[in-house]
Amino acid sequence: MLRVNDIYRSFGDRPVLQGVSFALKPASINGLIGPSGGGKSVLLKIIAQTCKCEYGSVVFDKGLSVADVGLMFQEGALFDSMSVYDNIAFPLVGGKVPTNSLPKEIRESVCDKVSEILARVGLSRAAYKMPGQLSGGMRRRVSLARALVGRPKILLLDDPTSGLDPVASSVIMNLIVELHKEYQPTTVMVSHDLRRLLPSVDRILGLFDGAIAFDGSLADLAGSAPAFVRSFVSCRFELPALPTEPTVTV
Predict the structure, then answer these.
(1) Which is nearest to 107 in space by CA: 118, 121, 93, 125?
(2) CA 220 vs CA 31, 190, 205, 241: distances in Å
(3) pLDDT tens-digit profile of 86-104?
(4) Which segments of 94-217 does DSSP mark as H helices, in order?
(5) What is the pLDDT of residue 160?
(6) What is the CB neighbour count within 10 angstroms for residue 171?
(7) CB 70 within 8 A of CB 155
């Protein structure tokens, strides 16, 4: 469904991405891990084409394009001057807000889609509140709803639980997993909250020193990942113990 080919990106004289390549399976949910400032957010933006790479390509399967990508920005990136409803409607209307200025047929279609996703994330009663009136967890749910309202085939989530307390973090992560089961978008999720991220994904991509240093399952991470990747993870998450060989007595 999506292939990332040999992506390079630098900022000034500082290389950030140095030949990143991987392919994603349809409807999979993938975790992207690595140290802060290592290019994870930049990579998501390149896939969503809100940021350009210097070399390499992002290739979508036949019939798909960047229009099929939903991106949840780090820290939410809500428009503070717009209501929750208009924030979520924004990708559906190309920024033509307020939505009550749209033709009736389009307005009704947008209303149906926004109302559905608001109910799904538990924010129907907050539709006409402003972002500044919401808690951090509610703001993240608005951002998630905005990324999902168009039913994207590819969903990119940039640190959706950052800065939230443990309870709110669990609510958001559980909601992401539930929505993935329901909509089945091919998902890439960046998170520093490895305790919640790693058990929730099918596959883990480790971005270190500008390249993919690990690509595998949680079991693979515990068994065959490079030592520096295991060390990075084990400081934040207790890796599963490897099975031991049975003792043979003679």
Answers:
(1) 93
(2) 14, 19, 11, 11
(3) 999 988 887 655 666 777 7
(4) 104-120, 136-148, 166-183, 194-197
(5) 87
(6) 17
(7) yes
CA atoms within 13 A on the CB side of 115: 6
Question: Token match 């608005």: residue?
Answer: 142
Mean pLDDT for the stretch of residues 46-63: 90
CB-side neighbour CA atoms (13 Å) of 205: 24
Exposed, middle or buried by CB within 10 Å (0-12, 13-18, 19+), for 71?
Answer: buried
- CATH fold for domain 2-234: Rossmann fold (3.40.50)
The strand pairing partners of 8, in sequence order, are: 18, 55
**Gap between the terminal Cα atoms of the chain:** 53
Residue 249 has pLDDT above 60, yes or no: no
Q: Where are the domains of the chain?
A: 2-234
Query: Helix crossing, 104-120 with 84-93: angle to 10°?
Result: 120
Q: Following DSSP, what letter does each residue of 63-102 receive, concatenated?
A: T--GGGEEEE-TT----TTS-HHHHHHHHHHTT--SGGGS
Confidence band of 19 (pLDDT split at 50, 70, 90): very high
Whole-prediction pTM value? Answer: 0.88
